[in-house]
Design a protein that fits this description.
The structure is a single chain. By secondary structure, this protein is an alpha+beta fold. The chain folds into two domains: 5-191, Rossmann fold (3-Layer(aba) Sandwich); 200-295, Methionyl-tRNA Fmet Formyltransferase, Chain A, domain 2 (Roll), CATH 3.10.25. Helix content is 27%, strand content 26%. It contains nine helices and 14 strands. Strands 9, 10, 11, 12, 13 and 14 form a six-stranded antiparallel sheet that branches. Helix 1 runs parallel beside helix 6 and helix 5 runs antiparallel to helix 8 (211-220). The mean pLDDT is 96.
């Protein structure tokens, strides 16, 4: 069970393994783009290309879906970036239902663990496989794999890397379950930290934060949904930035302090100066900071809000 691009490496590794893949469950097609054309999820596209049986239930509690799952008679169910499963679903398979989560649980429980690890400036993260329980992301841990977060790594880059590591971890987990060699680790709820869903409000840059915090927000939302600010009433999406210094400033957060080809576009925060390296003006394409300076009359003293 999975929906986004992140789930595909795990699906591939199961498909190529000695284990029998009975079916794949994913989100129903969704309207996309200006024409609102119904578009399959990345996982469904993969299934269609590889002639895999695919189920797209709207309601996970529907009698039809439950009976379809029971008819498949699976030994084990595997979840990678899907929806919250009702108990009547995750208890169908006799060996249980396992989940791959992109954090070192119990840290960063929730919908957006990769983003939040970057927002918080973590130096390391990883993946966890666990048995699903009623309360989200609280199940007993089977395996974990740790990895470093590189200083400038974006959400997109880290997500891609974790999806590949996760594909190996899922397979190791399934093999352990098959051999009955699983040694479970109970999560310590006192160590838990949240990783809630990304909201539009969260994506707006607050220039009264520090340059380091804002850089982490930008990295953690790049390439999508992306952090943004406004300039002269128009949205500027920002994808890449560099901390120039960490000098505290008592006023002028969001003010342009440099707008020339040598120093680039630099913005004052409450603690430090941030240089904007890649951005996208409203209704335009993504460009380098230097290109923006050539095409727009932004000057020292102007404000980003």
């Amino acid at each position: 069970m999975g929906t986004p691009e992140f789930a595909i490496p795990s699906l591939k590794s199961i498909q190529k393994s000695k284990h029998q893949l009975l079916a794949v469950v994913t989100q129903p097609d969704k309207p996309k783009g200006r024409g609102k054309k119904l578009t399959p999820s990345p996982v469904k596209e993969f299934c269609l290309e590889n002639q895999l049986k695919v189920l797209t239930p709207i309601n996970l509690k529907s009698e039809n879906f439950i009976s379809e799952l029971k008819d498949l008679n699976p030994d084990l169910m595997v979840v990678v970036a899907f929806r919250i499963l009702p108990e009547m679903v995750f208890t169908i398979s006799p060996l249980g239902t396992i989940n791959l989560h992109a954090s070192l649980l119990p840290k960063y429980r929730g919908a957006a663990p990769i983003n939040w690890a970057i927002f918080k400036g973590e130096k390391k993260t990883g993946l966890t496989t666990f048995f699903i329980k009623k309360k989200v992301d609280t199940g007993d841990i089977i395996l974990q794999k740790e990895t470093e977060i590189k200083p400038d790594e974006t959400y997109g880059e880290l997500s891609q890397r974790l999806s590949e590591i996760g594909a190996e971890l899922i397979l190791k987990t399934i093999d352990l379950i098959e051999k009955k060699e699983v040694k479970l680790l109970i999560q310590d709820d006192k160590e838990a930290t949240p990783a809630p869903k990304i909201t539009p409000e969260l994506c707006k840059i607050d220039w009264s934060g520090s340059a380091a915090e804002i850089k982490n927000l930008i990295r953690g939302l790049s390439p999508a949904p992306s952090a943004y600010t406004t300039y002269q009433g128009k949205i500027l999406k920002i994808f890449k930035a560099q901390v120039i210094n960490d000098t505290p400033y008592s006023e002028g957060s969001g003010e342009v302090v440099s707008a020339d080809k040598n120093k680039g576009l630099q913005i004052k925060t409450s603690k430090g100066i941030l240089r904007i390296l890649e951005l996208q003006p409203q209704n335009k394409k993504r460009i380098k900071g230097e290109e923006f300076l050539r095409g727009y009359r932004i000057k020292v003293g102007d404000k980003l809000e």
